[in-house]
Each structure stands twice: as structure tokens, then as C-alpha cells.
Known about the structure:
alpha+beta, 6-stranded antiparallel sheet, Jelly Rolls, single chain, 2 domains
Amino acid sequence: MNTKVGGKATNDEILLKHEKYLQRQRSVITYRMKTLAAKQVAITKKTNAVKEKIRKKHEDMRRVLDEDLRITLTQLDTELQATGKLVEEKMEDCYNLTQELDQELANIGADVKTQDSDIQLLQNAETEKRISETLKLTDPDLIQMDEFKNEQLLSLTVNLLVFIRSQVPVTKKLFQSYAADAVLDADTAHPKLIISPKGDSVTYTDTWQNVPETPFRFDTTLNVVSQRGFSKGRQYWEVEVSGKTYWELGVTYPSIPRSGCEEDCWLGRGKESWCVEYFNGGYAAWHGGVRHDLPLLAGRQFTRIGVYCSFPGGLVCFLGADTMTPLHCFCAGTFTDTLLQAMCPGHDNEGTNWKSLQICDASRSAPVL
């Protein structure tokens, strides 16, 4: 039997105390699991509620647009019907006159023998007058559409379309509010990369640049990262990729390996970074060395690629910014360090990949294709 020695607790007492501690903590962790499950249910419920509200608003917009279309087309149909009725009346006047002229032509032979010449001249004058008046009143140039009104209706409809396109996708308007500056750090760029003086573009060159050696420079992979990182909130930026056949874009922790031939130096090959890669028309997403092919995007070309990161949501999302087409989204969970913007312009790729990667002003929309 263990007893206290010099006022110290016995082994049994220590074990009993530790057992009680573990039991309490197990209860705490079990309760935490329940609260996490409840949190997931609550978030799902709130998300579904927002989705339903947005769906209903879109249905309302469709109803409003459908009603506006109905009213506009009814207005045009009403004028068309009125014009058609007028044309029919003029054609009827012409038809009645032709009937009268046919009758007169049939009576000419008898009238020559029986009528006085003065009466005949008078009748001829009246006929000529009727013909002249009818031709004057049925002149097609007198029947006009309200072309100004029609042009105004078309112009207003075009303006409405332009306005709607300027507002959608709504995710574009949202992401624009998260627009972040991205300035590339020339001291991290591989020696075969040229960084613009403003740090807003990177270009591959075959020539090894005379640059100072720093522990932060990538010496094997054609990478460069941003000067500043971010560790809270939401960030969105865009990069112009038009005319290129090979590139990689993403984010990375500062701890990404910078030197040596380890595969982790490449974007997305280690657990420190996330990226989307484009090569000869094909797209793939990378993280932790796991490749996710994106076959539905094969052959698609975008002018800009957008990158959205949410620290609260633990998200890294890539989009074709021209149309806000989703490319891939990583659910990263909790970020453990500052995130740096990262990019690789790729090698020359048989002479087809010399253009720069250009950082864009993400607060302004790219052209809609």
C-alpha cells in the first residue's frame, strides 16, 4: 500500500487524480464534438436559407423581365395591328376602284353610241379625279411606323442588358470588394524571371539574370512570391494570362522551400502551397502533391484568372475571371501562417510562352466574352 512520504502524494492518488482529469476532459471533448456537429447543422441551415432567398429573388427578376417583355411586345403588336388595318383599308379602296374601272371598261362600247360627248368628257374627268385621289390617299409612303419609338424601345432594352451585365455575376461584385494589391518581390524571383519595376508582372527569359543571392530566392523552380502577405480577412486578385500556354498561380506559406530540387519547391506540390496549373489547354489543381485534373475546362481559355482566399472560411478558390467560371476550390480548413501570392510564368514551351503574367486591377471588371 502506497503512503505519503514527506507530504508527497502516493502513486494511487496521482493515478486517481489523472483518471478524474481524463474523464472530465473526455466529457469536455465529447461535448465539443456535439457543439461542432450543431454548428455544422446551423451553418448548413443558414446557407440553405440564403440560397433559397437568392433563388426566389432570381425568380422575381425573371418574372419582372418576362412581364416587361410581354408589355413591350404587346405595344409593338398593337402598332403592327393598327398599321395592318390601315393597309387593309387602303387596299380595299384600291380594290373598289379597280372594280369601278372594270365596270367602266365594260360599258365603254355602249356609252360611245348612246352618250353625248360632253357627258362622256365629264365622266372621264370624274374618273380621272377619283383615280388621282385614290392613288394619293393610298400612297405607301403615307403609312409610317413610329420608328423613333421602336428605336427607343430597343435602346432602352439594350441599356437594361448592359446594366444587368454590369451587375452580374453578383460574385464578381462581391469579390471586387475584396480586391487586394499584389506586388511581386524581386528578391524571391528565380534568376530567369524578370520582375517589372512596379512588381506587377513577371516574364520568363532564357538569360540568367545577375541578381543578388538571398535565402528567399527560388533557385530551381520558376517561382516568385509577393512582397506582403495576409493573415486575416478575405483577399481577391486577378492575373492576366492571355496568350500563354503554361502558367501556375496560387498562394503559399512563407515556409515553402526555395532551393534544391525537392518537388515541394513547386507550387502545390507540398502542403505549404495551393495552385492551379495551365499547360497546353489543360487545367489541373495542386495541393500537397495531389493533382486534381479539371477535364471540364479543357480547351477553355480565359483572359484573366482570379484567386480568392478567405481566412475565416479556410478557402482558396480559383476562377476564370472573364465570366467568373469556377475552376477549383480548396477547403483548406484553418490556415496556420501568413499567405503569400505566388506565380510561375512557365518556361518558353517550344517558343509559345514568352508573354508576361500581368497582375490586374481586380476592382475593375474584365471584358465579358
